[in-house]
Amino acid sequence: MNTAYSNSVHETRLVTIGDRMKIRTLGMIALIMAILSVGVPYTILGDIGRIWASYLYWTILTVLTIVIGFIHLRGWDDKR
Fold first, then answer.
1. Distance between CA atoms of 11 and 18, rounded to whole angstroms?
2. Residues 6+ apart with CB under 8 A from 44
3. Is residue 29 part of a domain?
4. Do the domain assignments include residue 36?
5. Who contacts 65 (Cβ-Cβ below 8 Å, separation ≥6)?
6. What is the DSSP letter of 44?
7. Orientation angle between helical segments 17-43 and 52-73, nearest 10 degrees
8. pLDDT digits (tens, 9 = 90+) for 21-79
9. Which of 8, 13, 53, 70 is surrounded by the most beta carbons within 10 Å?
10. What is the C-alpha to C-alpha distance for residues 21 and 29, in angstroms, rounded to an integer?
11. pTM of the full predicted structure?
12. Residues 6 or more apart whose Cβ sits within 8 Å of residue 29
């Protein structure tokens, strides 16, 4: 067996404390955004009689989710 080949193919990357904190932070942001995506339209926006208020809120929340995902995955390829 060629050891140089097996080391490059089976290289294992340990999860560092920084990675764990990033995963935990992203999980907390996802949990907060999930609660807000259901809670705000039914509580704060519930008194507004127009349906566009909820759709505008969900659109803004979707754009925010995409931006957070982009920021989180921006340097993903550099970690290999």
1. 20
2. none
3. yes
4. yes
5. 33
6. T
7. 180
8. 888 888 898 899 889 888 887 788 777 767 777 788 889 999 998 998 888 888 777 65
9. 53
10. 12
11. 0.59
12. 68
